[in-house]
Every structure is written in structure tokens, then in C-alpha cells.
Automatic annotation (TrEMBL):
Enzyme Commission no: 6.1.1.21
A Pfam family hit: HGTP_anticodon
Span of domain Aminoacyl-transfer RNA synthetases class-II family profile: 38-336
Keywords: Aminoacyl-tRNA synthetase, ATP-binding, Cytoplasm, Ligase, Nucleotide-binding, Protein biosynthesis
Ranges in coiled-coil conformation: none
Gene transcribed to yield this protein: hisS
Protein name: Histidine--tRNA ligase
Subcellular location, record wording: Cytoplasm
Keyword Aminoacyl-tRNA synthetase: yes
Source organism of this protein record: Neisseria chenwenguii
CDD domains: HisRS-like_core, HisRS_anticodon
InterPro entries: aa-tRNA-synth_II, aa-tRNA-synth_II/BPL/LPL, Anticodon-bd, Anticodon-bd_dom_sf, His-tRNA-ligase, HisRS-like_core, HisRS/HisZ, HisRS_anticodon
Catalytic activity line of the entry: tRNA(His) + L-histidine + ATP = L-histidyl-tRNA(His) + AMP + diphosphate + H(+)
GO cellular component, one term: cytoplasm
Length: 431
């Protein structure tokens, strides 16, 4: 036998059935996508789909060269015929804003956009952290806030409610202020951290030179004391930024959304300013952040567009669904309504005709393929999860009827004329 070829490490198959180390099925995923599509539309967001491959320069410029994502985690390659460097997208915002600028979508009016799809980062795979993972994200472009800041938080909270996991998530918020305020804070922070340089780990030493704010993001327990006592960005906010943050919090209070202020919340990508937030859980081990976002008012301009205030968030679908699978209320709906069983010459064709008529009437119908004993087919019908079986054997074939069986018991079994099939099933289904 030829050697089997394995999938790429950290990249999952979504199967019809649960896997030992990956519980999410394609049907569960699809159920989530259905909820998400309706949810986004109910807030006035339109879907945008961009390519998975972009010029590497897009991510270098937006996410930042010194971030882990761009510095260490991107899948980058050169297109064979030219020297253009391309990368698999590690997140969705850069591509989305690139498209908005390229197609001049902000010409007439602000935009509310959402996207969903695979992202790629070469990270160490573990539960909740993969090399191909998926995000749903929203972008509200051309809105100054802080009303929209609060609205998108409410929007995310609403999705947690719809999925039955609100109680397992905590909202953390912070403000990063504007560029000037961040620069003043950065100077104080570098000053402070330099005093403790010999105590810092290698990662933090590097970040101290390249991106000092990210030192505060360190998960190293030995550094927590130093980080906790470091100068806090919130103390460097000017009146305008303070007012923005205050108003944002007042609206959250008014919407009865609980939050924790975390002055060390800085987010992993460079482009954020003012409001930032994360929804975290203590149910997924180290992979605690399910959704993160904030303002990035300067990003559109940086990508060559006219300046436009922007805010958005992205959630990791795998992490979210692992939580939903264990604690939430979402149900996968993979079972057909009706399983069609047939036996005898010509019965398969007649059964197929009934099946087509039922589908046209809105039923999901699984037709048994091939010939097996009625008993074996009945077993398959039970295993399919179908609510009803439709049986066409010799006697039904001769009398132009079919036998319906309620596999969950309530209606028992009944032979009905072909003309009454749909009616009867509709009554059974709604009873
Ligand atoms: P983390 O700190 O966990 O690495 P991040 O700050 O790098 O997360 P973002 O870039 O903000 O993550 O992406 C938004 C969300 O996408 C995260 O909150 C998480 O739910 C999900 N996510 C990010 N990286 C991965 C990954 N490698 N595998 C699975 N989900 C991921
Ligand atoms: Mg990360």
C-alpha cells in the first residue's frame, strides 16, 4: 500500500463526525455560520470576501514589522515568476481595509463590513491555537465613536447570548490614547523598563528596543511584578482621549454590560489606538482570548486612503466553538427529516420520485442507495438521525402509496396515498 499523506501540522480537517482531539464538526461549524450571517445582517453589516494571499508589504505596513505575527509567524513566499513577496493572510483587517481603499468604498458613506474565513500563523499548535485558524471579524469604518465603540461591544455580547456562552466570558477594556500620548508614555515606559533590564527575559529585552508597549503583554510570571508597577498608559491620556474613554464606559454601563478595566491590555498588533478590548474565558487554558479588537483610526490613511476613523474586532472561531461545544446552546442540524427506504423491482425509482417531491416541498430527504434488506435499511434510517422513514415496498408500489413511520414514536406508522404524503408529513412535523 502506498504511504498515507498527512495533513499539515496545526491545520484541521472539519469532518461530519467529531475527532478524538478536535470536537468540532462541519455541521456544527455550519450552524455557527448561519447564526453569524443573520447576526451581522441584523446590525446592518455587509459581508466582504478578500483573497487569502496578499502582498507581504500589506501586513508589514499595517500589523507592524516588529510584531510576532509579521516577524515570526507569517507564511511568506515569492511568486515563481517575479520577485513579489506574497503572504497567507494572518488576520483580516489589513486585507479588508486594503480592499476598501482600493475600491474607494468610503467615497460616499461610512461602511459596516464583516468577514469570515481562514487565517494563517506559524505558531506552536495546541488546543485553541492552530496554524490555519478561522476568524469572524467586523469593521466599522468612518465612525469616530465612542457610540460605535459601545455598539460593537453590545453586538459581540449579543452573539455570545445567541450561542449561550455569555456567562463564560469576561470583557476587558483599556484605552491606548492617541499617538502623542502613546509617545509620552512610551518614553516613560522605556525609562522604567531600562532600569530593570537585567531582570527582563530575552523576548522582553528585544521588545524593549522594538515595541516596548508589548513588554506589558508578557505572560512570563517572573515579570508580572515589574509590569504591574510600570507606568500606565491611562495616566497619560489627555482630555479628549479621557472623554472618549469615559463616554464609552458610560454607554457600556447604560447597556448593562459588565467590564474589567485592564491597564495592561495592549493587543498584539501595532495599529490600535484609543479603545481596545478583549473577551476572555478561563475555560480554554492558556488560549484565553476569544475575541479582540479596538480602534485603529490611522490605519486607512497608512494604507493610502483618505483618513477615516475605524474600529473593529475579530473572534477566533475554533476557540469560540470549543467553548460553545462544551458550554453553549448551539446545535448542529445535520440530520435529514426523512429517510427513504425501498424494496422490490421498480421501488427505488418510485422512492426517488417521492423523495424529489418531498424536497420540493421543503423537506431534507436522504434516499437509501443500493439494495439491502428492509431491516438493514431501517437501521440506517435510525442511525441517520432522521425523524421519519418513508417506505416503498412491493405492496406500496402496487397501490400507489407509501408507508410513513415516525422514528421517534409519536405518530406510529401509517400507509398513505401518494397524493397525501406531503400533507401527512407536514402535519406530523408540526405536531
Ligand atoms: P493570542 O494572544 O491568543 O495569540 P492574538 O492577540 O494573537 O491572540 P488576534 O490577532 O487579536 O489574536 O486575533 C483575534 C482572535 O483570533 C484571538 O482572540 C483568537 O481567538 C484568535 N486567534 C489568534 N491566533 C490564533 C491561532 N493561532 N489559533 C486559533 N485562534 C487564534
Ligand atoms: Mg497571537
Amino acid at each position: 500500500m502506498a504511504q498515507k499523506i498527512q495533513s499539515v501540522k496545526g491545520m484541521n480537517d472539519l469532518l461530519p463526525v467529531e475527532q478524538k482531539d478536535f470536537k468540532l464538526t462541519a455541521a456544527f461549524w455550519q450552524a455557527f455560520e448561519d447564526v453569524v450571517g443573520r447576526w451581522a445582517k441584523s446590525y446592518g453589516y455587509s459581508q466582504i470576501r478578500t483573497p487569502i494571499v496578499e502582498q507581504t508589504g500589506l501586513f508589514v505596513r499595517s500589523i507592524g514589522e516588529e510584531t510576532d505575527v509579521v516577524g515570526k509567524e507569517m507564511y511568506t513566499f515569492s511568486d515563481s515568476n517575479d520577485s513579489l513577496s506574497l503572504s497567507l493572510r494572518p488576520e483580516g483587517t489589513a486585507s479588508c481595509l486594503r480592499a476598501v481603499v482600493e475600491h474607494n468604498l468610503l467615497y460616499n458613506s461610512p461602511q459596516k463590513l464583516w468577514y469570515m474565513g481562514p487565517m494563517f500563523r506559524r505558531e506552536r499548535p495546541q488546543k485553541g491555537r492552530y496554524r490555519q485558524f478561522h476568524q469572524v471579524g467586523i469593521e466599522a469604518l468612518g465612525f469616530e465613536g465612542p457610540d460605535i465603540d459601545a455598539e460593537i461591544i453590545a453586538m459581540s455580547a449579543d452573539l455570545w447570548d445567541k450561542l449561550g456562552i455569555r456567562g463564560y466570558l469576561t470583557l476587558e477594556i483599556n484605552s491606548l490614547g492617541n499617538r502623542k500620548e502613546r509617545a509620552a508614555h512610551r518614553a516613560a515606559l522605556v525609562d522604567y523598563l531600562t532600569r530593570y533590564e537585567d531582570k527582563l527575559d530575552d523576548d522582553s529585552k528585544r521588545r524593549l528596543k522594538t515595541n516596548p508597549l508589548r513588554v506589558l503583554d508578557s505572560k512570563n510570571p517572573d515579570l508580572q511584578e515589574i509590569c504591574n508597577a510600570a507606568p500606565r498608559l491611562v495616566d497619560y491620556l489627555g482630555e479628549e482621549s479621557q472623554a472618549h474613554y469615559r463616554c464609552f464606559k458610560t454607554m457600556l454601563d447604560g447597556l448593562d454590560i459588565k467590564y474589567v478595566e485592564n491597564p495592561r491590555l495592549v493587543r498584539g498588533l501595532d495599529y490600535y489606538n484609543q479603545t481596545v478590548f478583549e473577551w476572555t474565558t478561563d475555560k480554554l487554558g492558556a488560549q484565553a482570548t476569544v475575541c479582540g479588537g479596538g480602534r485603529y483610526d490611522g490605519l486607512i490613511e497608512e494604507l493610502g486612503g483618505k483618513p477615516a476613523a475605524s474600529i473593529g474586532f475579530a473572534m477566533g472561531i475554533e476557540r469560540l466553538l470549543l467553548l460553545v461545544h462544551e458550554y453553549g446552546s448551539l446545535k448542529a442540524d445535520a440530520a435529514p427529516d426523512v429517510y427513504v427506504i425501498h424494496q422490490g423491482d421498480g421501488a427505488d425509482l418510485q422512492a426517488m420520485k417521492y423523495a424529489q417531491a418531498l424536497r420540493a416541498a421543503g423537506f431534507d430527504v436522504m434516499q437509501h442507495s443500493g439494495c439491502q434488506s428492509l431491516k438493514a435499511q431501517m437501521k440506517k434510517a435510525d442511525a441517520s438521525g432522521a425523524r421519519f422513514a418513508l417506505i416503498v415496498a412491493q405492496s406500496e408500489l402496487e397501490s400507489g402509496s407509501a408507508t410513513l413511520k415516525d422514528l421517534q414514536g409519536m405518530h406510529g406508522q401509517q400507509t398513505v396515498a401518494a397524493a397525501d404524503l406531503i400533507n401527512t408529513l407536514q402535519q406530523w412535523k408540526s405536531a
